[in-house]
Amino acid sequence: MALFGCLFIHVYWGALANGIGDPTHYYQMVDLAAYYPKGLVWLLFPNFPPPASLIQILLFIGPAATLCALVGFLTRVTMIVSVLCMCFLGAFLYSWEPLWSHPYNGELLAGIGFMLGRAGDTLSVDSLIARYVLRRPIALDREVYWWPVILGMFGASAVYFGGFYAKWSSPNFTYDLAWVFSDNLRNSVSLPWLIFGRPLPPQVSLIVNHPWIWRLAAFGHLATQALPIFAVLSLTKPYVRLLEGLIFVAGTVLLKEVMAFWNPQWILLAAFFVDWDYFLGRLRLRLPSKEPARPVAHGRLIVAYAAAFMAANLVVILARLDEFGNRAYPFSSMTFYSNVAARKPYSEHLHYPFPYAELELEYPDDTRRKWSCYPNINSLYVMTFRDDNLTEKLTEQIGAIRGVVERVKSETESKVPDCVGLVDVRDYSAIDLYSSVLDIPPYPETVRFALGFHALVGRYERNSGRVIAAAGGVSSAGNNAVVDVVSQGMDVARYDILLANDPWKNYKTGPLLVPLGTWKGAIFTFDPNYYAKLPSSWYPIVIRVTENSGHSYDFFGGILYR
């Protein structure tokens, strides 16, 4: 019951909260050019998004099967249908960005482990039908009830264990505690509050202002993520297993208190950590079977399925496959927030640069309002860091800003809730989408977002109804480099190329650099002498587009790596 209650109130309602209740309208709000399917969506629809009609069908079948599994009606079938539908919907939500977040992975993995097990023999509609309608009570003297519980517990724990392993290891498969003994936790626990535009609560301020506290907290966090999976080795020790379940719950609560990630539905998964037979027996609420237990049928198939399920999780985690294009959602390396959020040398307190998207609405009185909690904003800038097909890149940029515009136009209220306050979506004059590098200043400076660099992904101007964007691509030319530029929606008089002075290395980058070079059409070639003397660094490229009217706009044109 706990598992399918979690699937219903978290995955299904989460899907609806993300706007897919009306699939046709949802497709108008997402950037279709950024389609990057995962999981079952990738297997069934690798090249094009699934039809809206199929999503609508799954939105009917999925919750219906989940509720049936919850009350134990046609349990063996509805469990499988429920889990597969929810896996599809979860994967669909993250099919518009390269990676994914992990709110649903725990229950989906637990569901995959549990769904082929035997359930519904007691406390279910099926058991009532068997007893009172068919007059054939279900025999309970079986040993088949334990293995799906073990796999469910393993799946729920895999999210935590993957996070632990990803923090302990590195992309190069070295192992150390840099995640603990650095400024990492100071930056990691600050990021969610800064991204959401919220002030740091007292408990977070206490952590980020005392180095010894954030290092101790980092070590404790690793412990809470590493321990729950060992419950699979404590099957004959009910109190140890229960303690590991309490650690699982504590980790869920602490994520909320420290990082504002609140997934209370995960607490339902703690039911897997309770040895119900033992504790109900202690309370004399369980009647012992008078019959000897029947042997497990299809034992080899069960062992094969269990081994494959566990191996799939461990391979994805231990090989860090998310960093190599893993699409096997919900199987994940759980690398979210696992990289060391600090700069080397870790013994020094340095600023931390954080690439992200910023969405701002401009109003007729020249005031601006940042929309911090715009849905899926974290995926709306990533194309600006690529140097592949420029036409596709520009299409994605246009699609990203158009998706914002369609969502704004679809709002029925004049003001919509943000993480903090309300955003006026009726009286705006323009919408700007930025690709940014936001700095967390070094300790002991106050934790905040300081703008390191930003430039436009795209812009919408309401009066003219135009959507504008420019994209750039950097390529090498012998010992030199060239920047190709394409744009859309503007009356271009000229292009200029500017460089930001490596916001990843420099806390305060100063004014934009004006490189020497020549233009041929829309291609800029650096002056060879200037390029040769340019220090080795990462330089964000700004494409400044000046129109015949005199207006100019700065767009993010990629990165020049020297």
Determine the N-to-C terminus distance: 57 Å
List the total number of helices: 16
Strand content: 15-25%
SSE arrangement, N to C: HHHHHHHHHHHHHHEEHEEEEEEEEEHEE
Major sheet strand order = 2-1-5-6-7-8-11-10
Mean pLDDT: 92
In a few lines, what is going on in this structure?
This protein is α+β, with helices and mostly antiparallel strands and 562 residues long.
What does this structure look like?
This protein is an alpha+beta fold and 562 residues long. It is built from 16 helices and 13 strands. It has helices at residues 2-17, 23-29, 39-44, 52-71, 75-93, 105-114, 125-133, 146-168, 184-195, 202-208, 211-226, 238-259, 276-282, 299-318, 390-410, 528-533; strands at 352-362, 368-370, 415-417, 422-424, 430-440, 450-461, 466-477, 480-488, 492-499, 517-520, 523-526, 538-547, 552-561. The strands form three sheets. Strands 2-1-5-6-7-8-11-10 form an eight-stranded antiparallel β-sheet. Helix 1 (2-17) packs parallel to helix 5 and helix 5 (75-93) packs antiparallel against helix 6.
